[in-house]
Amino acid sequence: MQEDLLNSVVKITKNRDIDSLEFSLISTIHEFLNCKDIIIYKNLSQSNGIGVEKSASLYLDSENNYIWGEREILQDISKELASCLHSACTINIQKKNDLEQRWLPILLNDKPVGAIYIRCKTLHSEQQVLLNSYCRIYENYLTILNENERDKLTSLLNRQTFDRKIKLLMENQINDHFKVRTEKTNRKHHDDSTSWLAMVDIDHFKKINDTYGHICGDEVLLLLAQRMSAFFRASDLVFRFGGEEFVIVFEPTTQELINKRLAAFMEQIRSTHFPFIKQLTLSIGIARMSPYDFPISVIENADKALYFAKNSGRDQVIFYSDVPKANIQESQSGDEIELF
Ligand SMILES: Nc1nc2c(ncn2[C@@H]2O[C@H](COP(=O)(O)OP(=O)(O)OP(=O)(O)O)[C@@H](O)[C@H]2O)c(=O)[nH]1
Q1: I need a labelling partner for 332 at 20 to 30 A (CA). Which of 23, 109, 236, 308 fits?
Q2: Domain limits of the chain?
Q3: Boundaries of each GGDEF domain copy (predicted)?
Q4: Ligand 1 binding pocket includes 159 (Cβ within 6 Å)
């Protein structure tokens, strides 16, 4: 038993990213406590006030098979989960048929950032100690991985995380594409709805650094990053791609809606007061992320659109599909993007 326990800790701490850490924690809890349901919830309200994500989950279905649940942003949450996230205390409900439900808070730097939910046979004291220990190991490891995945200045997801996540996001696109095709006969489907990748670059940022110094430049980057986190949905991932360049990966939507959203964001930035500078403007290049595209070509397309936006006046959003062919060839002789 002791050897099994040590091996389970080795298994959990072997993970190098938060997504696989979550799956590993759930499998371990399942193995040792034989729970019926296990769910990891993430509190998104810290970044933009829109609720909770069901991040990873394992369920016992009606035919007694365990199935992995899908990632999902929840519109409503139970009062027990809300209370756990609010109070940072464990909530326990005892059911009549020797079953219990438990919500355990997950803290990052003393703030509740999520919760682990389990439904299982009533836990005896040793099992409770074990479960609490797993949660604490998870918390400690989450703190380290979270620091690794984020940019030190802006706290946005960093370039390394982007390189790792983009492949995963494209794979999810293919799965969603298949699902939509099979469900198409049953529900209304928007054929023009796909994911989008936007490359966002500050205009004339070098001038800000050269005129007011690097510290002022850093302050502008930090404020812009905060605005981005607050403006876009938590399900739209925002990365600091490098220097003064950011990447946003949007959930499936139409070109019209994405255009409106980005135009509204640019307007907000134009009217935001940044230290020293009169007005900050952005140039944005955007490309469609169709299933079966290579990640590198999506990034290159967004970069070509950005290049065109810069060369045709800045302070605008350009879709790759609107870049004239001649300009695409011209930008191909320019900088190459380094990926992976
Ligand atoms: N303060 C600060 N500056 C940075 C950071 N990373 C990159 N930069 C600066 O960002 C500037 C980018 O300049 P350019 O690539 O010439 O672009 P630009 O001046 O924004 O011009 P356009 O993109 O053509 O509008 C350089 O001066 C870099 O030193 C950072 O972390 N902090």
Answers
A1: 236
A2: 2-148, 159-332
A3: 193-322
A4: no
Q: Whose CA is nearest to atom 23 of ligand 1?
A: 203
Each of the 340 residues of the chain gets a pLDDT tens digit; together they read 678 888 888 888 888 889 899 999 999 999 999 899 999 999 886 554 558 999 999 998 888 889 999 888 888 899 999 999 999 999 999 988 889 999 999 999 888 999 999 999 999 999 999 999 999 999 999 999 999 999 999 999 999 999 988 988 887 766 666 665 555 444 444 556 689 999 999 999 999 999 999 999 999 999 999 999 999 987 889 999 999 999 999 988 999 999 999 999 999 999 999 988 889 999 999 999 987 888 899 999 999 999 999 999 999 999 999 999 887 766 565 555 554 4
Q: Decide: 151 in ligand 1 pocket, CB within 6 A.
A: no
Choosing from 156, 202, 203, 206 the residue with most ligand 1 atoms within 8 A of its CB, the one to mutate for a pocket test is 206
Could you say which of 3.30.420.40, 3.20.20.210, 3.30.70.270, 3.20.20.70 is the CATH number of the domain covering 159-332?
3.30.70.270
Rounded distance between C-alpha atoms, residue 280 and residue 266, angstroms = 9
Q: Is the CB of 217 under 6 A from ligand 1?
A: yes
**Fold held by 2-148:** Beta-Lactamase (3.30.450)
The interface predicted TM-score of the complex, written ipTM, equals 0.94
Distance 205 CA to ligand 1 centre (A): 5
Nearest CA to ligand 1 atom 14: 206
Pocket probe for ligand 1: among 205, 223, 318, the residue whose CB has the most ligand atoms within 8 Å is 205
Other Cβ atoms closer than 10 A to 103? 22
The answer to whether residues 176 and 247 touch, using CB atoms and an 8 Å cutoff, is: no
At residue 162's C-alpha, the angle toward residues 160 and 165, to 5°, is: 110
